[in-house]
Amino acid sequence: MSNNSTALIIGIIFLLGLFAGGGAVYLLSNEDSTSDDIENDSNSGENLDDDEKNEFDDKSDDSDNTNPQTNNTSNLKVLALHGGGESSSSFQNQQGMQDLRNALPEFEFIFAQSPEQGGVWINDVPGGKDSYTEDRDWADSSINYLDNFVENNGPFYAILGYSQGAAMIPIYLANSDSSFDKVLLFNGYMETLHHGLMDTVEENAPFDIPALIFEGEQDVFAYGSAELAGNFSSSLHLVSSSADHHLPYSSDETFDQVVEFLRNSSSDSVVENNNSSNESNETLDDDEPTPLAEQCLGGHSNLAMHIHPWIKLTVRGTEIPIPNNMGIDTSVCPNAMHLLHTHDDTGKLHIETYEPITVNLSLFFAVWNISESDDSTFDPLFHDLENVTITVDGVQQAVGISEIIFEDAISIDVVFDDALPDSDGDGVDDVSDICEGHDDNTDWDNDGVPDGCDDDDDGDGVDDENDQCPGFDDSLDSDGDGLPDDCDAVDGTVYDPSDLGLFWVDKFLCQNGTGVGVDDYNTSGDDNHICSVTITLENDTVTISSNGIPNHDLESGPGCCTSAQSYTWVVPRSPTNDTTGGHNSANCPEANGDYQCAADRGDIAIAINGVPIFGPEDGPGGDAVASNEGVYEEDRQHIWLGLCHGHSGPGGVYHYHADGNCVHWHPNETAGEGWRDYSFPFSTNTGEASDVIGVAFDGYPIYGVYGDDGTGQIVEMKSSYRLKSGQNGYNGIDDYEYVSGLGHLDVCNGHFGPTPDFPQGIYHYHSTIENGIGEMGFPYFLICYHGEVSDGGDGGDGSDPCSGYGETWGPGIGPPPDGCGGGGGGPGQQSTDTTPLEQQFVFDWTNLVVLTILSVIGLRLIRQRS
Q: Rounded distance, CA 121 to CA 117, Å?
């Protein structure tokens, strides 16, 4: 073989070595990294610009560095645990985490991925937030996983946790022999419904590791960090005035303290939690000892007594909730705990003392009055022995509360009942009863006479016997047809279809403080979210402002958790049909450019409770509803829809992908119904046409699933879209085709016809769940706008490629296209200053050696040839 041929072969081998996946530098996608349960980042600056690299080089070479510990911590590893429902890669890309890594190039952050389904470290308690478990082995799967992870990837200098990752760390420390020099807990909490896990933590705490506990004053979850601090012998407690539920950004006033804490190997920056004598904080004056109710615990060490009695309070037939975290971080014991305290609302008490003492029931009420300063009324009630019954383990006691002694595991029931006889059960005792045998609280016309004893219940001047429209004013007959308006199918309040301003003022819910508290079933506490909507009429437009909270209980799903937003949309006051044509048809190809497309993933309309309605696609681009109904498996991102086909994305953005009819539904509590009993469309089938549920961005109304089919019959309205042959919705909009006449509705999913509010007819859309042949009712709300769309609103007009993505993306929203903003602020969100790491450089020194040898051989052959 000639020298030229040999050189050519060597050159080819050299080039193959450069481009092979196993070369000196190869690319590893985030997806591949995640599958190995680890996100490794040495933070050596390979993804930074030259200025940033120089900045880090200067820091590492500066012999005058004011922190002498910095050079000693070079290449130390930090184990990072993501939040519940999150992934290691999304945690890595949080802005706060990016800022922390950039500020600490001398540390290697390694991101572990939870082994549990759904990205949680600790699975929820069976039965939800109203239950608890005593199982001490509940988190064994995550504990064993972390033990193996530490063994294979350690040793670690520090362990860092965010949200549920922070909650996991005390549990892991209590169950593992793994050691760390520092602990950092961000936006954390204690898993108080897991009594078994908490008992193990209390038995092993305090941990003799310097800990940093961080919380944000704007955190919507309002986790209490004092409990976490109590698990460590020394801690630094940081509270940011600006942070929400996320790590502090580099601009945060606490950021430098976080960086210094991790760099500094001394414990100068932390506060000792145990008092030196390991005794309760009694006064130095032996003649005036501190009352038990005002003595505080600095930690869980050196305890002489630790018992868990149970208590239940009932006042006049109503059980009084035992406050969660009662006796923790109070005005008397700031950043500490009273001798008696709670960790949840189950009634389980924790009584801990540094010496054996006798504690009676009066201590509970004394701590209650300190901890619940706005509600101290129950203490005097329960001292009223004439009306109080106390049982201990089911045995009635004949003594007062100061003589009931707390013992471990006993159950104490305290009942106060001073009720007088109430024969008709209306809540008014017989002596005060105005209308015996009837409910005194029912007085429709507010004339002071209960309806059961009132000949004219509704106060319209027509006695009940001759009343045509009971409960309403018979004298109101706007159309003069002899039927009172409130009992007239066409009651005279016929809205003008050319000016919908008054219509939207009348129809939007949650206005003027009428919203009621609702609960997110994906959280452990009672959220008491309250929806709020404001409608403002201008000459040509209607402005809708809302906080995005629904008027019904909800399930946030994997994007947990829902939080209040600040929305402002502007829609036309007088809808006008779009006859211009020539529109971009990318998101509604079947419309052929005749109508403006709605967004595929962002907001396309507003429900009448102020919640945004989103397009049909999920984040990866599939049909979110079809995936939820099991038509195909969404394997690109963990997504599911909760109550009313809604869920939230990172940043707390709650939205609907279908249905929306539950804005008008309420559970029958008398029959034992709850919000989880809601079923679409069956729960909304009353035999009548559905009420309006939203407004599209073109100003036309969206009605529920039932409507007039054009013959006067009220039927379930069906979409005219169907899946293309061989498709299942995995590709979203592209998998569907429009077939005229397949269902009741047109290419935009609407039609012209009568509605309950416009008997003369108006163009309107419908919520659909099926098409004309019983398959998926795509696009579920609308896919294009029959009317002209104004420039206002939060997006969704389909013409702007960035429209509808807002400031966050995640489940059901998806990343914005290249060049669009978005992200930053919540778990899993993407900062506007960063982009997801689609590729990552991984360096293999052995391959570098091979390439070097090949290069030398090639050069020698070339020289020989020359």
A: 9
The pair phi, psi for residue 558, each rounded to 5°, is -60, -20
Half-sphere exposure of 639 (CA within 13 A, CB side): 32
Cβ atoms 147, 115 nearer than 8 A? no
Residue 843 sits at φ, ψ, to 5 deg, of -100, 135
The residue whose two tokens read 């984040």 is: 619
* 567 in Cβ contact with 545 (< 8 Å): yes
The answer to whether the CB of 507 falls within 8 A of the CB of 694 is: no
Based on DSSP, count helices (H) and strands (E) in the chain, helices before strands.
Answer: 15, 39
* Rounded CA separation 114/81 (Å): 8
Contact 555, 518 (CB under 8 A): no
What is the structure's pLDDT at 191? Answer: 87
How many whole angstroms separate alpha carbon 274 and alpha carbon 290?
18
**What is the per-residue DSSP string for 629-651?**
TTSS---SS-----GGGEEEETT
In this structure, which amino acid lies at residue 777?
G
Contact 618, 811 (CB under 8 A): yes
Q: Tokens 């044509």 identify what position?
A: 581
Question: CA-to-CA distance for 835 and 131, rounded, in angstroms?
Answer: 41
**Confidence label for 421 from pLDDT (cuts 50, 70 and 90):** confident
CA–CA gap between residue 605 and residue 584 (Å, rounded) = 19
Check if the beta carbon of residue 654 is closer than 8 Å to that of residue 646: yes
Q: What is the DSSP string of 803-826?
A: TT-TT---TTT-PPPTT-----SS
Whether pLDDT at 642 is above 80: yes
Q: Residue 679 carries which DSSP code?
A: -
Q: Which residues pair with 390 in a beta bridge?
A: 397, 414
Looking from the CA of 58 toward its CB, the CA atoms found within 13 Å total: 7
Residue 701, H or E segment: strand 701-703
Helix (H), strand (E), coil (C) string for 149-178: HHHHHCCCCEEEEECHHHHHHHHHHHHCCC
The DSSP call for residue 475 is T
**CA 100 to chain centroid:** 24
How far apart CA 570 and CA 547 sit, in angstroms, is: 15
584 pairs with which residues across the strands? none
**12 CB contacts (<8 Å, ≥6 apart)?**
none
Do you know the residue count of the chain? 866
Rounded to whole angstroms, how far apart are CA atoms 365 and 370?
9
Residue 567: C-alpha distances to residues 307, 548, 549, 603, 654 (Å): 49, 7, 11, 11, 12
How far apart are the C-alpha atoms of 577 and 229, rounded to whole Å? 62
Token couple for 668:
């029958």
Q: In which element (H, E) is residue 212 found? A: strand 211-216
Q: Is the peptide bond before 681 cis (omega within 30 degrees of 0)?
A: yes
User: Backbone dihedral region of 802: left (phi > 0), alpha (psi from -120 to 50 degrees) or beta?
Assistant: alpha
Please compute the mean of the pLDDT values over residues 8-17 and round it to a whole number.
43
Does residue 561 have a cis peptide bond before it, meaning omega lies within 30 degrees of 0? yes
Identify the bridge partners of residue 211 per DSSP, sorted by sequence position.
Answer: 183, 235
CA 515 to the chain's CA centroid: 19
- Separation CA 352–CA 354 (nearest Å): 7
Give the confidence band of 377 by pLDDT, cuts at 50, 70, 90.
Answer: low
> Which of 246, 111, 81 has the alpha carbon at shortest distance from 171?
81
- Residue range 654-703, pLDDT digits in tens: 999 999 999 998 888 888 889 898 888 877 788 899 999 999 999 999 99
